[in-house]
Amino acid sequence: MTTKMYIKDYPRPQFVRSEWTNLNGQWSFGFDDDNEGEQAKWAEQFGGTQTITVPFTYETQASGIGETKHHPYVWYERLIEIPASAAGKRAILHFQAVDYVAKVWVNGQYVGRHQGGYTAFSFDITPYIVYGESNRVTVKAEDSMNAAQPRGKQRWEKDSFECFYVQTTGIWQSVWLEYVNATYIKEVKMTPDLDTRSVSLEYHVAGDFADEEVRLETVISLKGKQVKRVVHVVDREWLRFDIDLLHEVNGPWKMCYWSPDSPNLYDIEFTLYRGEEKLDHVYSYFGMRKISTRNGQVLLNNEPIYQRLLLDQGYWQESHLTPPSEEAIIRDIDLILEMGYNGVRKHMKLEDPRFLYWCDVKGVLVWSEMAATFEFNDDAIQSFTSEWMDVVRQYYNHPCIVTWVPFNESWGIMNVAKDRKQQAFTESIYHLTKAFDATRLVVSNDGWEHTVSDILTLHDYVESGDEFRKRYADKYSIVHNEIAFNKKRYAYADGYRYNGQPIIISEFGGVALKNEAGWGYGHQETSEESFIKRIQDLHRAIKETDYIAGYCYTQITDVQQEVNGLLTEDRKLKIPLDVVKELNKL
């Protein structure tokens, strides 16, 4: 089952136009370690001597290069065909992600700059192209080992260490091109409201609509049957309308919810007209779901849900942060479901939108987590805040995302337990996120030392179920900072207190089979039997602790030197899926 306008490999599956050009594949490539390319006018006469397979970074085997040494400046170039039939339309060049700063030229002319390694961006390149001919696109990517830029699990030293891996430099998600009329739909923010049985739509229409009437038609359907059609006059750039979703498709005056058990999605189409002329046609979808808390429980659609999450860092052996294919994305999601988990904590990475699409379609709960900085200074505050708000805006419409996690384990805010400035930073990000998105839960600092937070999340890599039971027997002492856990960490930062939030063990386990080349949490198990027994014991201890509202096991796969996955890095099973599924039965 897919949405109405699913297109394989389409890079932005929640805002689809039928005509697009995939620019992935072979590009010319070059290192520029001395940063001489701009002065040498590489945008006019390219100086690179290698080729690379986009969107894989040069550090990966999939790129065709496979060099892991850090190069701070890299260049890309390729010719793109602009058909004569597109004349009169705007050409929009899209980049799904470039780490960390991207500069773009077309036919030697500078187009623009973007900063942020995990967010999508685009440029209108119409003034720089020639229709009916080949055009040169040149990209310079600038990356650094600066710990003040959001980097997540990317190392900032020469060699990998602990749980930090080979860096990601340059283009690492899809590059593509589409053509639109001068007046077109730029974005639509969709907010479901179960309690009022409606969906709120905020439209951003770009272009000229002042002189002649422009109409926007919105059609909503479910399971192939139309349930609503509304038409509005467009007389300004931003419009907002609420649409009642009561309908008779699934019985008299029903509404279908989205949940892991029933991931119902409403198809929605936006068509823009000027007179009889069709200006734009966009396909999308949304899910009617609500996430909230009450009496120490997390509620989905106003009913308690016990979250059984799996930590997922989203790395592949040959392609690192870049999914090797859409089939690989689907296979990972299917494995998560087959193992009995109902959700995933996407750790230290903002994932490819196709991953979120398939979580929407298959009914997987997602905790979306920001890539951390590892310093606290003015530059870190500014770069983090800007990129995080782009993330929230770009991912907002995905029903699978139920929790935002801007900070993890005090990374980038190492003194948050006592430093008022760092505490204020976490509070500001919490409230800024809520100002843009009041529909989701926000965790201020996943793992410990919380400030203001919708969930109290605790990380604990205790090695036995008995030790876990003993430590968490007294809820009051844990949540009120009377006792520490996980290497002398406390639940709350100084000056903050527990107010009845749901409690989730959002990292535990991390058990590794004996492997001389890598590490896991605690001692390594020497047999499959002892491996299974230990993770069974830990799952059982958490589920038997009645005040705990969910958990997240570390982790789905091995990642480079970290070998504590349920699967190997190349997705081979360490233990039978049925064994893991049994762990997750409530």
Automatic annotation (TrEMBL):
Residues 294-582 form the Glycoside hydrolase family 2 catalytic domain. Pfam families: Glyco_hydro_2, Glyco_hydro_2_C, Glyco_hydro_2_N. The keyword tRNA-binding does not apply. It comes from Paenibacillus montaniterrae. This is Beta-glucuronidase. The keyword Metal-binding does not apply. Keywords: Glycosidase, Hydrolase. Belongs to the glycosyl hydrolase 2 family. One of its GO terms (biological process) is carbohydrate metabolic process. GO terms for molecular function: hydrolase activity, hydrolyzing O-glycosyl compounds. Residues 183-289 form the Glycoside hydrolase family 2 immunoglobulin-like beta-sandwich domain. SUPFAM superfamilies: (Trans)glycosidases, beta-Galactosidase/glucuronidase domain, Galactose-binding domain-like. It comes from the Bacteria. InterPro entries: Beta-gal/glucu_dom_sf (IPR036156), Galactose-bd-like_sf (IPR008979), GH (IPR017853), GH2_Domain-Containing (IPR051913), Glyco_hydro_2_cat (IPR006103), Glyco_hydro_2_N (IPR006104), Ig-like_fold (IPR013783), Ig-like_GH2 (IPR006102). Residues 22-141 form the Glycosyl hydrolases family 2 sugar binding domain.
